[in-house]
Design goal:
Order of helices and strands of chain A: HEEHEHEHEEHEHEHEHEEHEEH
Structural class of chain B: mainly alpha
Structural class of chain A: alpha/beta
Radius of gyration of chain B: 19 Å
Order of helices and strands of chain B: HHHHHHHHHHHH
CATH architecture of chain B: Orthogonal Bundle
Strand order of the largest sheet of chain A: 1-3-2-4-5-6-12
Number of domains of chain B: 1
Number of helices of chain A: 10
CATH topology of chain B: ABC transporter involved in vitamin B12 uptake, BtuC
Distance between the termini of chain A: 65 Å
Radius of gyration of chain A: 21 Å
Oligomer: heterodimer
Shape of chain A: globular
C-alpha cells in the first residue's frame, strides 16, 4: 500500500514537471551546426522580455541551423541544475536571460570551460561567461519624452516588478527623458514585487491613475497586461490615459492604449552574439547593445501615431540621432563589474 | 489623503479581497472535513484559464465563470482522488497539484494562443452597481460597485456559516474533520464527505481564478494566481475556520495589499519592500494575537482510514 501511494504521487509529480520544460523539434542534434539553449526565470508567453528571448532562440535555429532547447527555471538551485544539465549534455552556447543568473553562470563557467554562457543583463564575466548589456535606458529615455509630451496632468507613472539595477536604470532614464521635455513633470513609482501578478500590477496602475497620472510605463513581464487593462478601463471611464510598452515591441498587445514601446530587438542581439561566438570573438568582456547597434529603440504605435504631436516626433528624432552619435549620454544605473556609471 | 483617494483605496481592497475570499471560503469547507488542500493554487490557475477559455468559447463572462468553476472542480477531484481515495500524503500531493496546474495551464495557453503570448480580448465581468446601496458614502461603491462574483462571495459567507453550524450535514462534515472514527460509527461515509468537501473547495477556487481573469485582469497570463492559493490557506487560519470571519479576513488582507499601492502612489520615500511586506506582517500579527486561541480540525491532514 505504501509503495502504491508513493508511486501514485511520483507519477503525478512527473506529469506536472513534464509540462514546464520542452525541447523544440526541427533540427536534430546530429545535423545541427551547434547547440544552443535558453533559460528563462518566467514564462515566455509574457509578450515582452522573455518572449523576445524565445524568438531569439528560434531565430538561431532558423538562421544558423542550431539545435535548440528551452527551460523555465525558478529558483537559484534550478539555475545551477539547468546549467549543469545543458553543459554536460554538450550544449555549446547557453543563453541565461536575466540578471538573476549571473552568479550561477560564473560557477558553471568555471566547471565547464568549453561551454559559453551568455547572461542577458548580467554584471559579472569571465573567459566563457559573457554578459549582454542592453542599454534599454536609451529607449526608455525616448519613452519618457513621449510621456511628458502627451501628458495633460504633468504626472506620469512607472510600474516595476523588482527593483534590480536593469529595471531601476530604465526608470531613471525615463524620468530624465520626461524632464527634458517638461522640467516640472511628476513621476510616480511603484514596484509590485512580482513579474507575473497581473492583478497587483493593475492595482498599482489604478492607484497611480487615481493620483492623477495619465501616462504609465511598466517594466514587468506578463503582469504588464494588468497595466494595459487598468489604462483601458480608465479610458472607457472617460479619462485620457496612455500606456507605454517595454522590452519588446508591445504595440500590438493592446493597440488601443499603447502609444509606443521602448524595445530591445533581442533576436537580433542573440544572432550577433552567436556570430561572434562562431568567429571565436566571444568571451572575456561584456557586449553592449544600444541604439547605435539599432538593438535598442523606441517605436511609436502606428495606429496611434497621430496622437503624438508632430513637433514631439521631431524632437524624438533629434534625440535618437544624438544618442546614436554619442552626443547625448542617457543616465543609467551601473552594475557591470568595473564599469563607470553615468548617473 | 482626499476622500476620492480613500474611496479608490477601499474599492481596490474589495477587488483584491474577493478572489481570496472565494478561495478561502471553499478551503474552509475542505479543511473542516479534515483535508488540507495545498493544491488550491492549481485550482485557482486552472479556474483562470478555464474562465478565459470558457468566456471566449461562449462569448459570455457568466459562462466563463461556470467554466472556471468546472476547471477548479476537476483539479480538486484529482487531488481528492489521490488523497482521499489512495490516502497519499496531502502536503506532497497538494504541492504536486500546484506545480502540475501551473505547468499544464501554461502549456495549454501557449498551445492555444502562441508561445510568446498576448493580452486576450475577453468578455469581462463588468462591475454592476447595486442601486441605493452603491450610493452610501465612502463604502458604497467599494462594497456594492463590484463585479457579480463579489456579491456571490458576500452571499455565500452566511450560507456556508448556516450550513456548517446549523444543519445536520454541516455537523456531519465537522464530525468527519474532528473525529472520523466517531463519525463513521454514527453512519457517516467519511471518504464520501471528504471528497465532496474537497471538490466544492476546488470549484470555489476555480471561481476565484475566473474572477481574476475576467473581472480583474481582463486576460489570462501564466502564473497569474501569483501565490493566492497559499495566501487563501493562511486566510482560513486567520478566519478561524468560520466562513463569516474568513470573508472579513480576506477583505482585511485585500485592504493590506491595496494599502501598499496607495502608499507607493503617494510617493513616500521609503523602501518599497516595506510596503510589500505589510500584508504579511499584518497576517503574522493577527495570527499571533488573535488566532492563537483557536484550533484546527483535529483530524486535519490525516489520511483515513488510518491503517489498512
Amino acid at each position: 500500500m505504501m509503495l502504491k501511494r508513493l508511486l501514485a504521487v511520483l507519477a503525478l509529480s512527473a506529469a506536472g514537471a513534464a509540462c514546464t520544460g520542452q525541447d523544440e523539434a526541427g533540427v536534430s542534434a546530429e545535423q545541427a551546426s551547434f547547440r544552443a539553449a535558453l533559460l528563462t526565470a518566467g514564462p515566455v508567453s509574457d509578450a515582452g522580455w522573455y518572449a523576445g528571448a524565445y524568438e531569439g532562440l528560434l531565430l538561431l535555429r532558423d538562421s544558423l541551423g542550431a539545435a535548440i532547447s528551452h527551460q523555465q527555471t525558478r529558483t537559484p538551485s534550478e539555475f545551477d541544475e539547468a546549467f549543469f544539465s545543458y553543459a554536460s549534455a554538450g550544449y555549446d552556447l547557453i543563453f541565461a536571460h536575466g540578471f538573476e543568473y549571473q552568479d550561477a553562470a560564473i560557477r558553471a563557467g568555471e566547471r565547464f570551460p568549453n561551454t559559453t554562457f551568455v547572461v542577458s543583463g548580467g554584471g559579472r564575466y569571465s573567459a566563457n561567461v559573457v554578459p549582454l548589456i542592453f542599454e534599454l535606458e536609451e529607449g526608455s529615455y525616448l519613452a519618457g519624452m513621449v510621456a511628458a509630451g502627451v501628458s495633460r496632468s504633468g504626472i506620469i507613472g512607472t510600474v516595476g516588478g523588482v527593483a534590480i539595477p536593469p529595471v531601476e536604470g530604465t526608470f531613471l532614464a525615463f524620468e530624465a527623458g520626461a524632464r527634458a521635455v517638461n522640467p516640472d513633470v511628476r513621476v510616480l513609482e511603484a514596484y509590485t514585487g512580482s513579474w507575473d501578478d497581473v492583478a497587483a500590477a493593475k492595482e498599482a496602475t489604478v492607484a497611480q491613475l487615481g493620483r492623477g497620472a495619465d501616462v504609465i510605463i511598466h517594466n514587468v513581464d506578463a503582469a504588464s497586461f494588468g497595466v494595459f487593462q487598468a489604462v483601458r478601463e480608465a479610458v472607457a471611464g472617460g479619462r485620457s490615459a496612455w500606456a507605454l510598452g517595454m522590452n519588446r515591441d508591445q504595440n500590438d498587445v493592446a493597440p488601443d492604449v499603447i502609444l509606443g514601446s521602448a524595445v530591445i530587438r533581442i533576436p537580433e542581439a542573440f544572432l550577433e552574439t552567436a556570430y561572434a561566438w562562431q568567429s571565436g570573438a566571444l568571451g572575456g568582456r561584456p557586449i553592449y547593445f544600444g541604439a547605435t547597434e539599432d538593438v535598442i529603440d523606441f517605436v511609436l504605435n502606428p495606429a496611434l501615431v497621430d496622437r503624438v504631436p508632430a513637433e514631439l516626433r521631431a524632437a524624438l528624432q533629434t534625440a535618437r540621432a544624438r544618442i546614436r552619435s554619442g552626443q547625448l549620454q542617457v543616465p543609467r544605473v551601473p552594475f557591470v563589474e568595473g564599469e563607470p556609471g553615468v548617473r | 489623503m482626499s476622500e476620492t483617494e480613500l474611496v479608490l483605496f477601499l474599492e481596490a481592497s474589495v477587488r483584491l479581497g474577493v478572489p481570496l475570499a472565494l478561495a478561502a471560503m471553499g478551503e474552509t469547507i475542505t479543511e473542516r472535513s479534515g483535508v488540507i488542500n495545498i493544491g488550491l493554487e492549481g485550482s485557482i490557475i486552472s479556474g483562470a484559464l478555464g474562465g478565459a477559455l470558457g468566456a471566449l468559447a461562449f462569448g459570455s463572462a457568466g459562462f466563463g465563470v461556470l467554466a472556471g468553476a468546472v476547471a477548479g472542480f476537476v483539479v480538486a477531484a484529482v487531488f481528492a482522488g489521490f488523497c482521499v481515495g489512495l490516502r497519499t500524503d496531502q502536503i506532497i500531493t497538494g504541492t504536486a497539484i500546484t506545480l502540475g496546474g501551473l505547468g499544464l495551464t501554461g502549456a495549454v495557453y501557449q498551445a492555444r494562443f502562441g508561445a510568446t503570448g498576448t493580452a486576450l480580448s475577453l468578455p469581462t465581468l463588468a462591475p454592476v452597481p447595486i442601486p441605493g446601496l452603491g450610493d452610501i458614502p465612502w463604502i458604497g461603491s467599494a462594497l456594492f460597485g463590484q463585479a457579480p462574483t463579489a456579491y456571490f462571495a458576500y452571499a455565500l459567507a452566511p450560507v456556508l456559516w448556516y450550513f456548517l453550524f446549523r444543519t445536520a450535514w454541516g455537523l456531519e462534515l465537522r464530525a468527519v474533520g474532528e473525529e472520523p472514527h466517531a463519525a463513521q460509527a454514527a453512519g457517516v461515509r467519511v471518504r464520501w464527505v471528504r471528497f465532496w468537501a474537497t471538490v466544492f473547495g476546488g470549484a470555489l477556487a476555480g471561481v476565484a481564478g475566473a474572477h481574476l481573469a475576467l473581472a480583474h485582469a481582463g486576460t489570462f497570463a501564466e502564473n497569474m494566481s501569483a501565490g493566492r492559493g497559499f495566501i487563501a490557506i493562511a486566510v482560513v487560519v486567520l478566519g478561524r475556520w468560520n466562513p463569516l470571519f474568513v470573508l472579513l479576513a480576506a477583505l482585511l488582507f485585500g485592504a493590506a495589499s491595496a494599502f501598499q499601492f496607495l502608499l507607493q502612489a503617494l510617493g513616500l520615500d521609503l523602501p518599497y519592500q516595506l510596503f510589500l511586506a505589510f500584508p504579511y506582517l499584518l497576517t503574522l500579527a493577527a495570527l499571533a494575537g488573535w488566532v492563537g486561541r483557536s484550533r484546527a480540525p483535529a483530524a486535519l491532514a490525516l489520511p483515513w482510514p488510518k491503517d489498512r
